[in-house]
């Protein structure tokens, strides 16, 4: 599944990084502790986190995330949006919780 297909299937809000919506999704990872994510995130994972400061973009790049999803409609720092656009990392937002997102991704994808 591609990021753009996930956006459509789950009605996600595309905040930044539109150029990366052709990225292939290979799995899902949920965590908010950045040092843990740096050690565990795998290439192609959708990363679900409530963290919205600019450092999340660097962590997503390091781990080669397919995209980031911010759950529960959380506000996103303008610097984070700008950096995600610059790095072409899709930054998405949903009103669903992280748990609900993971269940829905499993439901609509073959991962």
From TrEMBL:
Query: Cross-referenced InterPro entries, in alphabetical order?
Result: DRTGG, Ser_kin/Pase_Hpr-like_N_sf
- What sequence ranges are listed for the domain DRTGG? 5-107
Q: Which domain of life is it from?
A: Bacteria
Q: What is this protein called?
A: DRTGG domain-containing protein
